[in-house]
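Subject: Predicted fold for 3-oxo-5-beta-steroid 4-dehydrogenase-like, 326 residues

User T.R. writes:
Posting the sequence so we have a shared reference for the thread.
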Amino acid sequence: MNWTAESHAVPLCDGMSMPVIGLGTYADPRTTPKESAYRAVKVAIETGYRHIDGALVYFNEHEVGQAIRDKIADGTVKREDIFYCGKLWNTFHPPELVRPALERTLKTLQLEYVDLYIIELPTAFKPGDNFYPKDEQGKYIYHDTDLCATWEALEACKDAGLAKSLGVSNFNKRQLELILNKPGLKHKPVSNQVECHPYYTQPKLLEYCRQKEIVIVGYSPLGTCRDASWVNLTCPPLLEDELLVSLAKKYNKTAAQLALRFNVQRGVVVIPKSFSPPRVRENFQIFDFCISEEDMKAIEGLNKNIRFVELLMWADHPEYPFHDDY
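User M.O. replies:
I've generated the structure tokens; pasting them so everyone works from the same file.
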């Protein structure tokens, strides 16, 4: 684990590798100024980030792709230096829609392939042009999910060279086992992207995934925004935690840097989202210190087993993942 700002990738079970810190690019398209994602990705690549996490449903992949292409064009990076993760949205789970969805992402990015393509959620929605389909009563319209059939369509995308690696997001143990135990499995999931931070440390899922050689990618590693429509506001703001703040002073770091380093030292890849250039740079400064074993245990003790991102609006979906213990 002698990572540096220049070299900090973890091996994946398919022979590829993934940088341990990436830039998250989710933002509410209704309130985010145009070009925000473009500028943030450019700054990130200039800072040393080589892992960019995006999704079709973020509605900004055109900006993200432009930034990546511009940094390739000016000689800062080559395409093979960049690790881009794209996501299959809930309305594209039927096998015949998987490749067209990935091709749509590639066309938007104007790239030949993604490095990782993941199923964003195990919860399928009614296919169609509306990403959030609802009936006349305002209730979400779901779709029967056959996660194994969806996975087989992803495998075909990898075989066609459109994605280097395949993974999942927000899958619980049962849903992971559906894939892992699938008859004729060709390509294992290399990663599972889930919420992970000092208030929600995911010890059981982390241990299970370690045994299966699946890397945990932690989203919301600094907590999350306080949007009451989808965030659990009973959980206090993570970065104001007294222990984190005091330990950050000890290491001459910020609480955010400490929270990120904590996850990375546990083998969890982190994808903090920020569109603020100073914050993007600050979040990357986690390779010049190491948290002691004693302090790691103290931070682990902060675990509250409370999610910020509960997605309760979909809790009645048959494949809603968070009813299970892990």
